[in-house]
Design brief:
With about 325 residues, the chain is α/β, with parallel strands linked by helices. The chain has one domain: Vaccinia Virus protein VP39 (Rossmann fold), CATH 3.40.50.150. Helix content is about 45%, strand content about 15%. It is built from 14 helices and nine strands. A seven-stranded mixed sheet has the order 5-2-1-6-7-9-8, with helices on both faces. Strand 3 and strand 4 form a beta hairpin. It is globular, with a radius of gyration of 19 Å. The structure holds S-adenosyl-L-homocysteine.
Length: about 325
């Protein structure tokens, strides 16, 4: 089957320019990740398959990518380990706007897997991802043995891993039915992950997703990683730079601060919600030995610039119920 054909036919079907621009950010994320992986910041042996041509990012960007990767891997690993330690449940992970994120493969390689793992993105992106996975034996061999290609090459279905196509702006009408059809169980403890995704949606759409989770998944946790602080000079520059590429951070003004991103969940009755910016995460969560290791990889003398940049990105980690499982998770401390 020609897994590449779907992409072109979809494009002919006409997503908007703004949608194409947002889809392109999956490449930006992958290029940064590949740069950090190649230089030894992070251990991701798979990301190179998704990046052509590779580009070396500046040291401060590599340092930021390291922190982002660290926070996400920390959360995924803590969730999977806590599942093993506290419950009979197998658990689920749902990655919203997964792009070319390789976490599923990294975890599989480490022998760390939740019961089910779902990734969602536009069909243009999932088709490219599926085709790349099938082209590279080191990725393909980590797929569960019952994996099937579906939807003209834009989806992968299996008992444990599903790569699903869909528009998050039609979450309840289109994405949720696909999740359910592929075995998503709202009663399982579920970790949702959203790295630089919800911020591109109108707040009414992203709020709708969070409202659905609040009402439908009793044991939910979420990690988001997004831009904050639009109102200072750096924030304004960040917005202008993205706007020049037709990228609009639609959610930024609705949730502009650490407090507001955290309140977003607390105001809906979630039990716990913590937000830290990347600068604080770097200072608090990266231990001394790791920082020494990073310092040897590349010289970073732009500390002021790094801090400024890192203050404009934030992790928010929230969970809905006070259970033994969720109490074990403290990825931002
Ligand atoms: N989370 C990934 C990718 C980030 S780029 C990572 O960190 O590497 C943002 C991703 O969100 C892109 O792949 C884009 O296609 C996806 N996305 C944005 N809006 C979306 C929508 N409405 N529906 C589905 N996916 C969307």
């Amino acid at each position: 089957m020609d897994l590449g054909r779907f992409t072109e036919s979809q494009r002919a079907g006409g997503a908007s320019n703004a949608d194409h621009a947002v889809q392109g950010t999956s490449n930006d994320a992958a290029v940064s990740r590949e740069s950090a992986a190649r230089l030894g910041y992070i251990a991701d042996p798979f990301i190179r398959h998704f990046v052509k041509p590779a580009q070396r990012r500046a040291p401060l960007i590599n340092r930021g990518t390291f922190c982002r990767f660290h926070g996400v891997q920390n959360t995924l690993c803590q969730f999977i380990q806590a599942l093993g330690a506290t419950t009979q449940a197998s658990g689920q992970i749902v990655v919203l706007g997964a792009g070319f994120d390789t976490s599923f493969f990294i975890l599989e390689k480490e022998g760390l897997s939740a019961g089910k793992y779902f990734e969602i993105d536009f069909a243009e992106i999932t088709a490219k991802k599926a085709a790349t996975i099938y082209r590279h034996p080191d990725l393909k061999s980590l797929l569960p043995s019952d994996t099937q290609v579906a939807m003209g090459g834009s989806e992968l279905h299996s008992s444990r891993y599903s790569l699903l196509s869909g528009d998050l702006r039609q979450f309840q009408s289109h994405v949720v039915p696909k999740l359910i059809e592929r075995g998503f169980d709202p009663n399982e403890p579920t970790l949702f992950l959203s790295e630089c995704v919800l911020i591109y949606l109108d707040p009414e759409h992203s709020d709708h997703i969070i409202d659905w989770i609040t009402l439908s998944v009793p044991n939910a946790a979420i990690l988001t990683y997004e831009q904050i602080r639009p109102d200072d000079r750096f924030g304004q520059m960040m917005i202008d730079n993205l706007r020049a590429r037709q990228l609009e951070l639609r959610g930024l003004h609705a949730y502009p601060t650490l407090e507001s991103t955290s309140q977003r969940f607390l105001s809906r009755g979630w039990h716990s919600s913590t937000a830290v910016d990347l600068a604080a995460y770097h200072d608090r969560c990266i231990d001394e030995s790791e920082r020494k290791r990073l310092a040897k990889l590349e010289f970073l003398d732009e500390w002021e610039e790094f801090t400024l940049l890192a203050q404009h990105y934030a992790f928010t980690f929230a969970y809905s119920r006070d259970t033994d499982l969720f109490q074990m998770l403290c990825p931002l401390k």
